[in-house]
Design goal:
The protein is α+β, with helices and mostly antiparallel strands. Helix content is 49%, strand content 19%. A hairpin with a 6-residue loop joins strand 5 and strand 6.
């Protein structure tokens, strides 16, 4: 009997029945592929019906079957690698394959063997869902055993020279037949169980596939929604940038208009000649009011009035310049604090300020002319 291990697949080559009771006799060759290089390798032997098994060290790609083992067994292989903290960093586990060890004539002794942690056996037992392979192996073993029965019967016929020897062979053959029948029944039960497991797995696979399709559809819907949201965000960002550019262009144009004096009001300058004719000129080439005479005939000398007060009754040129500079500074401050929703409000404020400045300048000029007169 030989074992061939390719990654996590196990194949029993040259299957044959072995006997219990031998010591260091049944050495089984194990052929591992390159994926097992550098790993600590162990065989796991579990008797049918038991919940725990035995670990067998693989030495020189060989294992030795313990002399106390007989009956239906499953075998698998585990390879692992440990780090400096004695933690597993890699592990390969094969499926379990079945074979038969018939009871031999040697003395059977029980030896203590290392039992792996129950958590590992839980993993191994779950792999019994692949029991269909085991059932096929059992069928082959039954065929081999039936052939052995036929060979034993022929040997019994040829051994008629000794009745006791003949009877012993008959008893042995009958025992073997009974064991083979038990094995066949066990194999049939295993096959039925494997078929039920296969159907359950297929049903679970269909449910999982439907769940996967639904999850994929949900993912696609979410992706479509995300793309739509991203498109809307980009559209909003474009609109915001366009509005921001328009706001900046308006502020720039408004500031340029202020610097160019586009919002300065026209200054009307009165001119009074010695005959009392009041005429006007302006700095915006607008139509001037008609010339009128404000003197009339010479009247009697009146009383001397109070002296005009600077800053109340009239303004000096320096005061007018300071006042104009203050109005312009306040207007520029309002523009610097510009927001799109206050654009019209600020424009009206600047216009009102400039109109106020123009009116004040006109009044002050009239006052100075009157003082000079």
């Amino acid at each position: 009997m030989n074992f061939k291990i390719d990654k996590d697949k196990l194949e029993i080559t040259e299957p044959r029945i072995i006997n219990s009771g031998s010591i260091a006799y049944y050495s089984v060759d194990c052929e591992f592929d390159d994926s097992w290089n550098g790993l600590t390798k162990k065989a796991v032997l579990i008797k049918k019906g038991d919940s725990q098994g035995t670990q067998i060290a693989v030495i020189g790609n060989q294992i030795y079957i313990d002399k106390s083992c007989y009956g239906d067994y499953y075998i698998g292989f585990v390879g692992y690698m440990l780090n400096n903290d004695n933690q597993k960093t890699l592990q390969i586990s094969t499926e379990l394959k079945g074979f038969y060890i018939q009871k031999g004539a040697g003395e059977i002794q029980v030896v203590e063997t290392e039992v792996p942690p129950i958590s590992e056996w839980e993993i191994y037992i779950t792999q019994l869902v692949n029991i269909s392979d085991i059932a096929n192996t059992k069928i082959q073993e039954i065929s081999n055993l039936e052939q052995s029965i036929e060979d034993a019967e022929r040997d019994r016929s040829r051994a008629e020279q000794g009745r006791e020897d003949e009877e012993q062979k008959r008893i042995s053959a009958e025992t073997t037949r009974a064991e083979n029948e038990t094995s066949r029944n066990s194999a049939e039960e295993s096959r039925a169980s494997a078929e039920q497991t296969r159907r359950t797995n297929e049903s679970n696979r269909i449910v999982n596939e439907n769940g996967r399709i639904e999850a994929e559809n949900n993912r696609k819907n979410a992706e479509t929604s995300r793309n739509s949201t991203e498109t809307q965000r980009q559209s909003n960002e474009t609109a915001r940038q366009t509005a921001e550019n328009a706001r900046e262009d308006y502020i720039t144009a408004l500031r340029q208009s202020i610097e160019n004096g586009d919002f300065d009001g026209a200054t009307f300058i009165p001119h009074l000649d010695e005959n009392g004719n009041l005429s006007w000129s302006n700095n915006k080439e607008l139509d001037n009011p008609p010339t009128i005479n404000i003197m009339g005939p010479q009247g009697p000398q009146g009383e001397t009035g109070p002296k005009p007060v600077a800053g109340t009754d009239y303004y000096t040129q320096k005061e007018k310049e300071n006042f104009a500079a203050q109005v312009i500074a306040e207007s520029k401050t309002e523009i610097d604090n510009f927001t799109s929703d206050k654009k019209d409000e600020i424009t009206d404020l600047a216009t009102d300020k400039l109109k106020e400045l123009s009116a004040v300048n006109t009044l002050k000029i009239i006052s100075e002319e009157a003082i000079d007169i």
